[in-house]
Amino acid sequence: MTKLIPIAALLLLLLLVTAMFRQNADKPAAPAKSPTGEAPLVTVQLLDDQGQLTGPLQVPAVVRSEAEWKARLTPEQFRIMREEGTERAFCGLLWDHHEDGMYACAGCGLPLFGSAQKFESGTGWPSYWAPVAKENVATRSDNSMLMVRTEILCARCGSHLGHVFDDGPPPTGQRYCLNSESLVFTPKPLLGVQPEGAHKTETAYFAGGCFWGVEEGFRTLPGVVATATGYMGGKTKSPTYESVCSHTTGHAETVQVQYDPQQTDFADLLDVFFKSHDPTQKNRQGPDFGDQYRSAVFVRGPQQRELAEAKIKALQGSGRFANPIVTEVTDAPTFWKAEDYHQQYLLKTGQASCHVPGGG
User: Is 91 a catalytic residue?
Assistant: First the structure.
C-alpha cells in the first residue's frame, strides 16, 4: 500500500502540470463579435460556383456560442472541434480515404485540404503536406501534454482541426495531421454543383450607380459572404477607374456579391438591389451622370434571368414607379475587379452613401 501512494501522487502531479500547461498555453480567444455586434473580418479563400478557389477575400468570421455549436455538431464533433479532443488513430472515416475532391471544415464549410495534398503517413489520421490555401488554416501554440506542438484551426470559425508537424514529405516537409470528425468531403465532380453544406457559394452581379453605396448595401446583408467592386459590360480589357469615367469603355460600375444560398437567395438580393437605387434613371443615379452609372443585372444563367425579368415586370405593374424601369438584364461578361481603394470604401472611410432610394 505504501508503494502505491508515491505512484498516485506522481500521477496527480502529472495531471495538474498538464492542466496548468493547457491553461497557460499561448492560445488566443476564439473570434468574438465586435462591440457593435458584427463578426470580425477574416481573409480566406472560398469556392466559387465552378468549384474553384476565389483568391483571398475578406469575409465575416463564423461566430457562434458554444450552445449553438453543440446544437449543430454531433457529440464527437463537439468534443474534438470545440473541446480540442482527438479521435483514436485508424478509427476516423477519412484516414485512408483517397477519392479525388476537397476536404472542408465540418463547422463552417471552409475549404481546407485537397486530395492532391493528401498522403499516407501511417499514423492513422488524415494527413496532408499543405492546405489548399494558406489563409484558410490558422495556427497557435499548444503546450498541453507536456510538449510544445502547433495546433491548427479553421481560420473562419476557429474550430480545432488537429496539429502540424515537421516530418512530412516534400515539397513542404510538413504533416498536417487532422481529425476526420473535423472534416467533410466533397468529390471533385460535385464541387460547384453539389458541395457539402456551407461549401457552396453563388455569385451575382449588380450595377446601380456608384458602386460604393451598392456594395455597402449588400455587404451587411445576412447570408452574403463577400463583396467586391469592379467593372462589367464594356469592351475594354483590364479597365481602370479613370478609363471607365471617360465614358469610352462601356463598363458599368458593378458589385460582385458572393452569397450562401442556404441563408439567402437571388430573389432576396434583387429586393435589396431595387430598393437601393432608382431603376428608372437611365445612365445616371442622382448627381452621378454617365453610362457607368446605369442600372443593370448581369445574370449567370437562365434562372437568374427569369427571376430578374419577373421582378422588373412585377415592379413595373405595381404602380410604384411613375416612369418605366430601364434596368438592363444581360448575361454576365468578365468581371474586372476595381482598384483596392474602391473595395469596402464606405466602410473604410465612414462616409454616408449618396444613393437615391428606390421603390422596390
Answer: no
